[in-house]
Recover the amino acids of this structure.
């Protein structure tokens, strides 16, 4: 396990012009939102059709006569229940209800996706269909050069003085906020982040009980996968290939981005690690939005975290559901045509932004 870093760059808003390209698996997925109109199939009916073999003679969507998916599931895998479900049913045009209805459809071959996408967009019962946008982290995750927590520089922590955070911390009145961090996970036992050491409270702001691993959203499930564990260094099942001669559970060879970003946000200055986070009294709910893949494009091959675009939308949404007042997103889209939420209001990414606006949650990218 490699050590993870908390850099002494204390800015809540991270801005970078370049993105780090990771190895991406061949994606065979399309995000689909059905229309809520008379005669349209329900999301449940579509999921039942696609996941039942052999498929029924009459498909729920005309598009399936052109290209039939091999599987489908929900973007929001943990389905609403109780009063929340009742509210969603009563508000069918809300951003949150549309996110609840979003489907992730998988097709047999990568080459099937363009044809299937065109057929779905032409289907009278489909409101929106799109390939998941290619997202990645703003800055490189750690590697062989990852060190321990950086000590403050002689002139103070970078950015600390420029932002006058010391003066801000002197303002009386207290206050608290919950930050939802959509990232690669974090070092759950880091002395500057952990809340407890054994049974002793040590003051860290990472809230394990409010955190969740959503990185396998839309991906094949793994036996024994623990969604409550958001450790950035956790192992996942990797098929035999360049990274291992046999299929095995492997930890990432490169990591650190999530721990670094968490430190920017909430590092405990009293931990002795030599770092202060920007928000002194913020709790941090971490949503791990990556899955591991073997990157055979480099020599030697390494296990790298791959950013899961579907998981990011799910993580943002669930963080808002849980009461997060700010969402930290140190990632972005820098491939091909920019995505416009004016033109594509029904894209899942745009709906998650609209939902945040409706809930008065700040989104920081």
């Amino acid at each position: 396990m490699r050590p993870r870093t908390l850099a002494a760059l204390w800015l809540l808003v991270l801005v970078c012009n370049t993105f780090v390209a990771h190895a991406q698996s061949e994606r065979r997925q399309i995000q689909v939102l059905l229309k809520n109109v008379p005669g349209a199939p329900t999301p449940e009916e579509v999921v039942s059709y696609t996941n039942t073999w052999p498929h029924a003679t009459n498909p729920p969507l005309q598009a399936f006569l052109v290209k039939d998916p091999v599987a489908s599931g929900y973007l929001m895998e943990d389905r609403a229940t109780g009063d929340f479900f009742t509210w969603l049913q009563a508000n069918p045009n809300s951003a949150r209800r549309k996110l609840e209805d979003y489907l992730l459809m998988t097709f047999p071959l990568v080459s099937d996706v363009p044809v299937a996408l065109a057929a779905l967009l032409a289907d009278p019962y489909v409101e929106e269909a799109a390939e998941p946008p290619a997202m990645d982290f703003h800055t490189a995750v750690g590697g062989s050069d990852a060190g321990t927590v950086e000590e403050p520089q002689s002139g103070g922590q970078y950015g600390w003085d420029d932002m006058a955070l010391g003066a801000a911390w002197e303002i009386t009145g207290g206050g608290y906020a919950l930050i939802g961090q959509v990232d690669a996970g974090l070092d759950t036992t880091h002395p500057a982040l952990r809340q407890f050491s054994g049974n002793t409270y040590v003051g860290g702001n990472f809230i394990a009980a409010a955190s969740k691993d959503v990185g396998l959203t839309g991906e094949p499930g793994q036996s024994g996968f623990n969604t409550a564990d958001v450790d950035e260094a956790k192992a996942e099942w990797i098929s035999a290939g360049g990274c291992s001669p046999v299929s095995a559970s492997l930890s990432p060879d490169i990591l650190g981005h999530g721990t670094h970003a968490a430190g920017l946000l909430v590092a405990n200055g009293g931990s002795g690690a030599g770092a202060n986070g920007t928000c002194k009294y913020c709790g941090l709910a971490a949503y791990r939005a990556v899955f591991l893949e073997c990157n055979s494009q480099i020599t030697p091959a390494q296990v790298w975290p791959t950013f899961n675009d579907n998981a990011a939308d799910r993580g943002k949404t669930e963080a808002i559901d849980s009461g997060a007042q700010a969402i930290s997103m140190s990632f972005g889209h820098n491939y091909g045509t920019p995505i416009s939420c004016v033109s594509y209001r029904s894209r899942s990414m745009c709906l998650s932004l609209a939902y945040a606006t409706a809930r008065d949650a700040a989104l920081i990218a």
The first helix runs from residue 43 to 50. The chain has a mean pLDDT of 86. The CA atoms of residues 7 and 186 lie 13 Å apart. The helical segments are 43-50, 82-90, 95-101, 113-122, 165-170, 257-266, 309-321, 348-358.
